[in-house]
Amino acid sequence: MEQSKCLTVKREPFGKVLDGISIELFTLSNSNGITVKITNYGGIITSIITPDTTGRAGDIVLGFDSIEDYLKPHPYFGCIVGRYANRIAEGKFKVEGQEYSLAKNNGPNHLHGGIVGFDKVVWEVKEVTESDNEASLKLAYLSKDGEEGYPGNLSVTVSYSLTNDNQLIITYDASTDKTTPINLTNHSYFNLSAGQAKNCLDHVIKLNADKYVEVNDQYIPTGNLVDVASTPMDFTNPHPIGEFLDKVPGGYDHTYVIKKEGTKEKMAYVAWVHEPLTNRIMEVYSTQPGAQFYIGNFLDGTLIGKNDIVYNKHYGFCLETHHFPDSPNQPSFPSAWLHPGEKFNEITIYKFSTKSY
Predict the structure, then answer these.
(1) Contact assessment for residue 264 and residue 289, using Cβ atoms and an 8 Å cutoff
(2) Is the N end or the C end of the chain the one with fewer CB atoms within 10 Å?
(3) How many CB atoms lie within 10 A of CB 301?
């Protein structure tokens, strides 16, 4: 008799979208009581359940119980964002002598891939894997030439893998037949208290970044990378998110420049977060050059999520690993161009643990 595997994937229906396409929900489970739920609509992480120091399990990401709620307007809870995460100024860029105009869905600017970005499409389920080492789900999507104004047929795969080391590994791969900008991320909102705290402001965070991307009042980069030292933006030493919040107009919503040695392909430490009520810890590692640190400034209490939790301002935080905003128009930034014949590959790891302090 074959020995049962430690890591499993459960597959079940999750309703239908408006055109009748069936949506599925996948539950990745390891032997340490961690489960991650993902739907092929938008590649959304709907749930991450981890134990606290007492062994009590809790859901640490914001989201909803039903597909119907995800079909309504919401602030990108848990989804894959693309083709280009964050903003592109005036929804325009030039490449190889041609100007392209994108959908303007954030005032005069383009945000998170446009009106129907990767967060609002049904991804093809390419592969489901169970083994002694990991439980994984691979999703695929073909973004056709001209979609939301972007050039080229862009073939994308995103893999979610859960390991017995309590790592959730997200791997992004893509290729194109025309030069195009690409910037993929996952937009999960975290609250490591799993409903025990009214917001995320007491979470203690450390960021491996001594600079951030300066932006104007529309969150468009000025081109400057600013030192965090001796400012409220400094998280090089761990401290509560809310400690200097009153000195940050609008709240934290900035791309931090991850400190690296070597090339961009090298995995780097991004962040460490500790929640003091439950002693949950989340560590983040990535090959990406930046991380958008956002603390739910625009949550306003109008959305009610899982377990009837009201998502008030600052209820959750995001660490969206990606390239810098508006890179197609900022030649001094790390390149976000993907050319025919090249392979796009980025990896981000979220690792979960507990420790009392």
Answers:
(1) yes
(2) N
(3) 10
Return the residue matching tokens 């400057």.
224
Please check whether residue 276 is in contact with residue 162, taking contact to mean a CB–CB distance below 8 angstroms: no
- Distance separating alpha carbons of residues 239 and 89, to the nearest angstrom: 33
- Cβ neighbours of residue 27 closer than 8 Å, sequence gap 6 or more: 9, 10, 12, 35, 36, 37
What residues act catalytically?
Answer: 187, 320
**pLDDT value of residue 263:** 58
What gap in Å lies between CA 142 and CA 152, rounded to an integer?
10
Cα dihedral sign, 190-194-199-204: negative
Per-residue pLDDT at 314? 98
Residue 194, pLDDT above cutoff 90 = yes
311-323 mean pLDDT: 98
- How far apart, in whole angstroms, are the C-alpha atoms of residue 76 and residue 47? 14
Asked if residue 265 has pLDDT above 80, the reply is no
Query: CB under 8 Å to 58, separation ≥6 — which residues?
Result: 49, 50, 51, 52, 193, 194, 195, 196, 278
Report yes or no: 52 and 113 within 8 Å, Cβ to Cβ. Answer: no
The pair of structure tokens assigned to 300 is 């306003």
Element counts in the chain: helices (H) and strands (E) = 1, 27
Q: Is 154 helix (H, G, I), strand (E, B) or coil?
A: strand
3-state secondary structure of 328: helix
Distance CA 76, CA 183 (A): 15
- The torsion angles phi and psi of 38, rounded to 5 degrees, stand at -135, 135
131 DSSP 8-state letter: -
Residue 33 vs residues 8, 25, 124, 189: alpha-carbon distances, Å: 12, 18, 28, 21
Residues present in the chain in total: 357
Give Cβ neighbours of residue 277 (< 8 Å, ≥ 6 apart): 193, 196, 197, 202
Task: Tell me, yes or no, if the pTM score tops 0.90.
Answer: yes
The residue among 280, 292, 346 whose CA lies nearest residue 318 is: 292
Task: Say if residues 286 and 347 touch (Cβ distance below 8 Å).
Answer: yes
Question: What value does the CA radius of gyration of the chain take, rounded to a whole number of Å?
Answer: 19
**66 strand-pairing partners:** none
